[in-house]
Protein 1
Amino acid sequence: MLILSAKIRKDFGKKTKSLRNKDKIPAVVYGPGVKNLSLEVGYEEFEEVFKETGESSLVSLEIEGEKKKRPVLIHEVQKNPVTDRFIHIDFYQASLKEEVEATVPLVFEGVSPVVKEFGGTLVKDIAEVEVKALPQNLPHEIKVNVEGLKTFEDRISIKDLIVSKEVKILKEPKEVVVSVLPPEKVEEELEKPIEEKVEEVEKVERKKEKEGEEEAGMPAEKQEEEKKEETKEKSK
């Protein structure tokens, strides 16, 4: 496990901004049977650790003043929507004897022969999966090799993903992860919605034009009579 240093946080409220200005990130650690504890961690150190572990690998949290390191998961991170910088971290101190659920990203590797030789388009239907395992067995990522996609009929499904026997993927085994579309199919998919929308718009416009023409060509007296008839029908 990678080690991440942390200190007990003493700045709260408005003072939190000054903490971030010092390249520190406010954080909290919690878990079953664990008292919530407010922390602060160095920005650059956390950034490096997060690149390696993501949200599905254990981190050894070394808190100043504590003799034992805490095994934690980076449960959630918050980022500034403008700068994309980390502004808060939730650490989850999990029991190493109980399974937890986590989201694991898929990493696609290799080149599909049907893409390279026949101009197909690789379609990634799933980018990440939910898994269940003991914290120490959670994978950081799951690799998907697409070199086996040799024809347009080939598929890689959930059941084809390679994980250790200690890890359970929480998705239907038959669900498609990645496939390849022929060039003409891609063009059809791109053009189809546009054509449908154009046809719908044209139908609506033709209908409005027809109604407008009928109404425009109708004498004012006739229009008034029809409105009265409609009112009578509704009152019945």
Protein 2
Amino acid sequence: MQIITKKENNVLALLKDIKRDYPEKVSFDVIKESLDISETRLVESLEILQKKEFIKLDSENNMIYYDDLNMEVKVVENRSELKRYMLNKTEEDAYEIIQDVITKYDGYAPRYVLEGALLYGQLELTPKRTYNIIVSLENKKLLNKVVKTDGEYYTV
């Protein structure tokens, strides 16, 4: 599933409609004439759709090739909403990793192991982002810090 903004969804919907008349590819000019947005915003939306593998752009010939227009999407209002959704998704992914690590350590994982799993594991978070996620999960009472004589540990 891909997460896109309303503007990107408008371009995607137009591409789906135009695909009937232009089954293989469509010219950039046809899209530009059909939508009531600036060329800059259109190019930006098309580049984002290309990154998310809906289309392929050929800038030399000003052509748009369809890749996977029927991919499942979640539409959000704007970019700030998109960022907020992605942050929540990262927290969910991090929490799953944390649960796995804590399970491997019989319910109490050392702090350095937990941070290492987030920093160097699948998510490859920055140190600041790792700290923010751990604090956020602590504030939400999903993660508990336990101080023992030999160091700090976390448990769920």
Protein 3
Amino acid sequence: MAKKKKLRSLRCPTCRTLVLASDENFPFCSDRCRLIDLGKWASGGYVISTRISDPDVLEDLAEGESQRKQEDEGSSRKQ
């Protein structure tokens, strides 16, 4: 008995339609969905979060946090 060849398929990331690996626009179902996805990347809709490793940025964040805490303490004392 011959084994059946399994077809690889995914869902289109934009519209969730089932797409076969052999389709022309794989992993998208159409050029429209491909352009919609590209537009999301171009507008900053997709973000890959990473840890901040720049010391200057870390210092600025720490200073901003300490200023917010001082402002919160000052406003709570007035009440």
